[in-house]
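Quick one, T. Sequence first:
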Amino acid sequence: MQSHPNVQAVQDALDGPYTRNGSGKRALVRLLPDAVHTAAAAAEALGVDVGAIANSLVFDADGEPLLVLTSGAHRVDTDVLAARLGVARLRRATPQFVKEHTGQVIGGVAPVGHPRPLRTLVDTALEKYDEVWAAGGVPQAVFPTTYAELLRVTYGTPTDVA
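Structure tokens:
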């Protein structure tokens, strides 16, 4: 599975300008024995708090993709977020919309490795965790990172999304 094109695209993105805590340590995509389609399932498989899972949620913001990396312990308040972003309509994207804009399927969408960069918001609640886990391009792939690294590698905007 490590050779799956999505996993490779994520690993390539992580190998680019990305280093863990500036230490030069390589971030590696890890394959779990089973698919983890939810934050709760990922947290259980990794033995971490559900809040330390960075859910990659794709929204349709007036027809444009918006990636929200939210703590697994939060739900995105789409009404508040739409008003903050100045969009008329913000809704969960369809599986087809997600695949079209990320090249990945729901349950495995990574913060990186997409055909084109996506506008990205990063939940400020993730900042309280020393280590967070994100999807690696397919539902059974994950990688460890930090809040600061998520902001850097995605060019994301820190946002209270709940």
